[in-house]
Amino acid sequence: MFRHQLQSGIAHVGLALREPEEFAVRWNRHEVEYRWGVWVSLMATAILGTMTYGMTMGLGGHVRDVAMKGVTCTLGAGLAWGIPLPALYILNSLSGSRLRASSTLLAALVTTSWGGLAMVASIPINWFFTVAIPSPNFILLVNLVVFSGVGVSMIDVFQRVMRKLEPQRGTAPVWWLGLVGVIGAELFYLFGLFHFGH
Q: Would you call 38 exposed, middle or buried from its count of C-beta atoms within 10 A (0-12, 13-18, 19+)?
C-alpha cells in the first residue's frame, strides 16, 4: 500500500512538472483526488532540489560545510516558502478569489517543486564555476544569478497556474513569490549561506 502510494506520487510529480496548470486545474475541478503520496512527493522534490544545490554551495570547504549548506539552504527555502503561505490564501480571498485553500496550497507546492527541479538543473553551473574560479565574490555572484533565474522561472510557473485556476480574475498574486524572495534572502544571510570564505 505504502509503496503504491509512493509510486503514484512520483508519477504525479512528473505530470505536475510537465503540465503544472493542468495538474492543478484537475484537482480544483474535482476531476482527480491526489492522495497524501502526491503531496509528499511534491514537497520531497522541492527539498531534494534545495538540499542538493545547497550542498554544492559548500564545495569550497570541508565535508561538514557541504552538509551544513545543504541543510541551511533547505531550511531557509522551506521557511521562506511556508511563512507567507497563509497570507497568500487570506489576501487572495480578500481580493475576490474563490479558490479553496487546498487549491492554493497545491499551486504553491507545484511551483516550489518546479523550483526544486530548477535548482537541480543549476547544480552543474554552480559546481563548474566554484571549481574553475574559486573566488568568494565570484561564487557569490554565480549563486545570486542562479537564485534570480530560478525565482523568475517560479514566478512564471505560479502565474500560469493561478491564471489557469481563475482565468476570470486576469491577474495572479505573484507578489507572494516576491515576499518569498525577500524572506529567503534574509534567512540565507542570517544562516550564513552566502558566506564563501575559506
A: buried
Work out the angle at residue 142's Cα, subtended by the Cα atoms of residues 19 and 137, and round it to the nearest 5 degrees: 160
The neighbour count for residue 81, using CB atoms within 10 Å, is: 24
Query: How far apart are the C-alpha atoms of 3 and 131, rounded to whole Å?
Result: 39
Q: Model's pTM, two decimal places?
A: 0.87
All three cell numbers of 14, joined, read 512528473
Q: Which amino acid is at 177?
A: L
d(CA 57, CA 66): 7
Q: Is the pLDDT of residue 1 over 70?
A: no
Under DSSP, is residue 70 helix (H, G, I), strand (E, B) or coil?
helix
Q: Is 7 within 8 Å of 38 (Cβ atoms)?
A: no
- Cα→Cα distances 74→50, 70, 89, 106, Å: 5, 6, 23, 19
| pLDDT tens digits, one per residue of 57-83 | 998 888 999 999 999 999 999 999 999
User: Is the torsion defined by CA of 108, 111, 113, 115 positive or negative?
Assistant: negative
Which of 31-40, 64-73, 124-133, 166-175 is the least confident region? 166-175
In contact, 154 and 100? CB cutoff 8 Å: no
CA pair distance 105, 113, nearest whole angstrom: 12
